[in-house]
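Collaborator request log, item 7. Partner lab (contact: R.S.) asked for a structural prediction of Sugar kinase to inform their binding assays.
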Amino acid sequence: MSEVITIGEPLALFAAEGEAEVDKEIKDVEHFKKFLAGAEVNVCVGVSRLGHSVEYITKLGEDPFGTFIKESLNKENIGTKYINSTDKFFTGFQLKSKVSDGDPKIFYFRRNSAAANFDIEDLKGLDLNGVKHVHLTGIFPALSESSRKASYKLIELAKENNIRITFDPNLRLQLWKSKEEMIKTINDIAFKSDIVMPGISEGLILTGSDKPEEIADFYLNKGAKTVIVKLGTKGAFVKSKEEMHTVSGFKVEKVVDTVGAGDGFAVGVISGMLEGLSIKAAVKRGNAIGAMAVMSPGDNDGYPTKEELESFLRGEAK
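Returned to partner:
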């Protein structure tokens, strides 16, 4: 029995490593280091490190990357009983550049991957007894028609069992057939979710506004219960029918890699709510973990244990 369930595509990530690789085009990089990656798996890693039980749903190829991913998940104490394997499709992977400023460049090898061929049949046998939280992102529905149908089926099952749903849009335009299809689908899933967590730039794409309160109202008026708009270093804006406030962020001495910060933010919110924190306190935790994430090279390397998180918060409070 797990507290949290998520569905997605885990990837083998090859990130450029070493000072000689900084600001190089991916084609020119000579040295890479292998990591476990994927937005939803990042959330699993973070939630597990904070002491909560989590189960991951996906499909992997019967190949070296699939084996690496499953072994990595097991090491992080992430449940794998809902991971199916296939010899018909390969496991996806990606390459990531190293930059001195801003977001690194990403190149995917995931078209027609094993996870893209996940379908509703793969959800048979799913037991939601005891599950308190389902987390979704906009990436898995982008992979294929079948993965999209599976995402909607999981939403339906969660609602039938009165399980809280968080949704991070995690826009990846390169995975969609068109921008219009992306916006329509992402917003439809957001309307069906309890807590929606867009970034400010995502809000502009999805709602036409970059004003936090207008973004929040867009989703609140369509069925979401709480909207948290991520504001980068400025923190996050929170609005529900009961409350509205901005939660400040944390100072970071040196940004190493921005990828994984948003997933770390989701880790803070989800774990905080599981522990009975107020939404404001949960968002503060999210801001903290997001800050810790950008100081490490891998997508989830910087996610803390409970002791490390408490130490970071104590240091920031001084």
